[in-house]
Design brief:
two-stranded antiparallel sheet; elongated; mainly alpha
Length: 187
């Protein structure tokens, strides 16, 4: 069980106690980072029930919370449900499940965890914790590739790049020359 004093009243979260962490570490494969093999990982993803090192936590954070919700065992608060998900999972269990569904564990994180097989694993893990029947069918592939502009993130911030016009660039050059001439004349 987690310690009883939640950091925010009514939040239902608390620090993970050493007994819970020891139980999670004792699961097969959890004494090394699921991604790089570093010893004694202390970051985890309750959605996947896996442990990884600090370096690999950044990669998981970049996947988005819908794929891998990243928590530090020592610095973050955990809900009872998240701790239960970690205890129901394990690095080896996750790897075995994904491999049995054709996912290569030597792939990059996004190619492993942003897949229908990984989504099914997240659903199975959650069902186990909630005492619900485990789903058995792979979810449909995410609609992420449909109707997405490939140039979406080009340009400044997330705005589209400015459209090039032959007239616009000529006007800018003319304006720059006029400003320089005025500046030279005033000097």
């Amino acid at each position: 069980m987690a310690t009883p004093n939640p950091p925010f009243p009514g939040s239902g979260s608390c620090e993970m106690n050493p007994q819970d962490f020891a139980a999670i570490q004792s699961l097969p494969g959890n004494m090394q980072c699921v991604e790089c093999g570093s010893p004694k990982p202390d970051w985890g993803s309750p959605k996947l029930g896996i442990l990884f090192c600090f370096q690999c936590s950044g990669r998981h954070r970049g996947l988005g919370t819908h794929i891998s919700f990243v928590r530090s065992v020592t610095m973050d608060s955990w809900t009872e449900k998240q701790i239960a998900q970690m205890k129901a999972g394990g690095n080896d269990k996750c790897e075995e499940f994904l491999t049995s569904h054709g996912v290569s564990m030597s792939s990059e994180a996004r190619e492993k965890y942003d897949t229908p097989a990984a989504e099914l694993y997240r659903q199975v893990l959650l069902a186990r914790v909630e005492g619900k029947p485990e789903p058995t069918e792979l979810p449909k592939a995410a609609a992420k590739a449909q109707n997405v502009d490939p140039n979406r993130y080009k340009g400044f911030g997330s705005s589209p790049p400015p459209k090039k016009t032959s007239q616009g660039s000529g006007m800018i050059i003319l304006l720059a020359v006029v400003i320089m001439l005025i500046g030279v004349a005033l000097w």
